[in-house]
Design brief:
Length: about 80
């Protein structure tokens, strides 16, 4: 009885996989059992032209050592509180 259920489950999974691939349009995978290689993207890359008078945004300043130390202290305290709970 259990063996029949396992076999039926495997068959049901195979049919579900086949139906999903067929609905998704991967019919070559379903019919031939091999994966179809995707075509490489051949669209040309467009480069943004340089606009005079427009500068890129400045980079964010590096974090302060004191703020990192405060963040580390808060994280340690949270971990300590979580360990005690």
């Amino acid at each position: 009885m259990i063996f029949e259920l396992i076999v039926f489950g495997v068959i049901l999974l195979a049919v579900g996989y086949w139906a999903t691939m067929f609905v998704m349009g991967r019919r070559d995978d379903v019919l031939h059992g091999r994966f179809v290689e995707e075509q490489p993207d051949t669209t040309p890359v467009r480069i943004m032209p340089h606009v005079p008078g427009v500068r890129p945004a400045p980079a964010a300043p590096p974090p302060d050592k004191d703020s990192l130390q405060a963040l580390l202290t808060v994280i340690k305290q949270d971990l300590h509180d979580a360990a005690r709970s």
